[in-house]
Amino acid sequence: MTTRTPVLLTFDMDAETLWTARDPDGANKPVWVSQGHYGPKVGLPRILRLLEKYGVTATFFVPGQVIERYPAEIESILSAGIDIEHHSYSHTWSDGLSRDAEAEEFQKGFDAIVSATGRKPLGWRSPAGELTPHSVGLMEQYEFSFSSNLFDSDTAHLLSDAGRVTDIVELPFAWALDDAPFFLYSNRLQGRVMSAPSAVAETWIREYDGISTEPGAHFMLGMHPQVIGRHSRLWALEETIRHIVDAGDGEFVSCADYAARVRPGLVEANTP
Ligand SMILES: [Zn+2]
């Protein structure tokens, strides 16, 4: 039996919190914040239609504030049978937070997911692209089975915390496999140039072709509905999905299911 390459499509549906977290005065900048509204209202339905077209699953990471603000959109994700995982409450960049403030973000985000979905989240992705000294302990406190934060590997491994190996499965990804470095743009973000969708599709397809030759490696894309949800960018995602489907050697799977499957074979962490 050949093992198929796990394909993990992940969407961080940050909506307005992506912008309010970057600028404390963001709430007073309607154009700035309106970029976030596009994600759940316009990008999300297109993404769900694309996933349905190919019969593939995904994982959504959603801040609690977004869950509370967009109940109908959250329901559309759940109706598609897609898991919603933890991505903080307010998307406040946690690398500047005290332990108490980060703990409150965990609790409120957790409560919002349980209240809206009836299911406890099993995984956490940091809103800051960084872990604090308290993040791993908080993940353990909430009995998360997986983390998707590090960039250290293309292979699942156990997460460590100050040299101690935990029971949490880390599912690493990479900026090269994220839509934001290619496409995120605002007239207030200096130095950003939008990439051609064809260049992004080529990057992702070539990454898949390499990863799919390596036993144990997984292919994870990190995306944002407000970024990937435009037609030109969805084309890049569809090209990638179609390539994987045509190759016939990939398996689209949720992060939680993949973490549960791979956990028994993991004994050590990649990084100290
Ligand atoms: Zn985010």
Automatic annotation (TrEMBL):
Q: Where is the NodB homology domain?
A: 30-253
What the entry lists under InterPro entries is as follows: Glyco_hydro/deAcase_b/a-brl, NODB_dom, PgdA-like
Gene3D superfamilies, sorted: Glycoside hydrolase/deacetylase (3.20.20.370)
The protein's matches in CDD domains, at most eight in alphabetical order, are given as: CE4_HpPgdA_like (cd10938)
The record's annotation in SUPFAM superfamilies points to: Glycoside hydrolase/deacetylase
| Name of the protein | Polysaccharide deacetylase
